Amino acid sequence: MRPLGRLTLGYLAVAACLVAVGPGEVRGRAGVLLGFCGCALLVVACAELARRRPASRLSAFAVVGCPLVLPLFLYPAVDRYALVLRGRFLDDEVNAWEVRVFGAHPNLVLDELASPPLTEFMMVSYFSFYLFALLPPLWLVFRDRTDDAERYLFVQMLAVYLCYLGFLLVPLRGPVAALDDAFGSSSLTGYVMTGVQARIMAHDPAGACFPSAHVATAWTGLLAMRRIISVKAFRIFLPLVLCISVSVVYNRYHYLSDALAGITVALFATVSTTTFSPWLASRMSRTVTRHRSSPRGYLRKMP
Questions:
Q1: Model pLDDT for residues 23-74, shown as the tens digit of each residue
Q2: Measuring CA to CA, which residue among 256, 263, 261, 259 is closest to residue 223?
Q3: Residue 44, C-beta contacts closer than 8 angstroms, at least 6 positions apart
Q4: In sequence order, what DSSP letters do the residues of 51-65 get, joined into one string?
Q5: Can you state the angle between helices 146-169 and 256-275, rounded to 10 degrees?
Q6: Which pTM value belongs to this model?
Q7: Would you tell me how many other CB atoms lie within 10 Å of the CB of residue 246?
């Protein structure tokens, strides 16, 4: 099995063990475990497809698409078992720590700068996180670089899975719930994207704050772009990643400590995969032929 599949199965095994034997509350334990089993079966099925048909277009999309699809279940499922280790939310402790370190609540400091145009800009910045999750690996596939797409996804998913485990170690409700009475208004006021983002966040799982998966994914993707795509791409997207890092705090979705932890996760994932990149490259080269593993390469082989 390819490294990305092994990584995903490893996370599913750890998460399933925590849900099965953790001392805290789990809502619908059997359903969560069944969902993990379904995700594992999907990973195994995609791996088998890639092994049997390495030159097909479907295999190329399965390699890239599987890790992009799984968070549709894994992320919302956190709401069911966020308290499995700690048993309660730790917002009071985190808020007290931030006041000691920064002298004030960073969320409340940024709230004093709020205005409709700035809020709309920050909401757009926050939403642009999906660019790093979806577009680069798909672009690499269509450029006949499926192995590079997998390397990009490996480091990105490593950061994501570390964030998911972090949710359980430090479960937080977030600033909206914990500091609601301290904000100058009940909600931020903007224009189009503000309303769109509010509808999306209405379904966000409780406890999915520390570390910020948005910040971790954005920084991991940016650093992967520099190594896999180009330094020019890194320079182009750096301002956007900085805006994402600020927007998670401004938009009241995360504490500043969540954002800093997300950057730390991104650096750890990047350094880890860079250290083991020769091993990853050798494992990938054994199971894929670059020219024929992507749709364009496949089409060129057709009469």
A1: 999 999 999 999 999 999 999 999 898 888 877 777 777 878 898 899 999 9
A2: 263
A3: 1, 5, 9
A4: HH-TTSHHHHHHHHH
A5: 140
A6: 0.89
A7: 16
